[in-house]
Amino acid sequence: MKLYISVDMEGITGLVDKTFVDSKEYNYARGQQIMTDEANHVIGTALAEGCSEVIVNDSHSKMNNLLIERLHPEAQLISGDVKPFSMVQGLDSSFAGAAFLGYHTRAARKGVLSHTMIFGVRNMYINEKPIGELGFNAYVAGYYGVPVLLVAGDDETALEAEELIPGVTTAIVKKRVSRTAALSLTPEKSGQLLREKTREALANREKVKPLVPPDRPLLTIEFANYGQAEWAHLMPGTTIDEHSPTVSFQAQSIVEAYQAMIVMTELAMKAQFC
């Protein structure tokens, strides 16, 4: 049995602000270590529970945060940027399940360091349904018939996961106080929790169904300002709303929508606020 693990950073134990998740900031090295430790708790438990192969995808920022020299030796790591499928690079139908670690809530929703891909996204939709990184990634997993078995992050992320994926196991390593403050477990306690929840998720895997994406999904992204929308609209096949900073793309499949989202958000980051 193969397990796929996507590891973001904002939902990791004790990480509450940009000083932990930005490589230029003073707490970043601490964040890397805790992030790597959390991945190891899940990897080691999964292998002990019978998984034959574990692939880990570093899914934060430039995607080179996990410390490979400290990662469980039996895991394999996908790291670096550019990746054609970003946070779900390498995910395909050969996996029995997926785990999302260090995840956060979508933009415009309560939660520690909530956002969707870039901080310039106000809202993102698939067929008018609000979606964030968690949901979009789960849809891609579902496209390949892979269920998301475990989601770890703050309490608001657990709620978002449970709304999307019936039967999913969630591990709450911290509780939101504000967008940049949390009541957090210690790394030792969160490690115990992650090991317990990994065992629970694998034991319950037959009860969780893949999140099946819609056919020919309509992707819509509402940006923070019109300049970002103008940049995103440079992608062929998009339409822009003349009255709001919103750009849409009619995709043929969820994987095409996912790559369109990557291109549109990358273009939008070129816009300046002043």
TrEMBL record:
Zn(2+) 1 binds at D8, E10. The active site is at H115. Gene3D superfamilies: Dipeptide transport protein. GO terms for molecular function: metal ion binding. Keywords: Metal-binding, Zinc. Zn(2+) 2 binds at D8, H60, H104, E133. This is M55 family metallopeptidase. It comes from Paenibacillus cremeus.
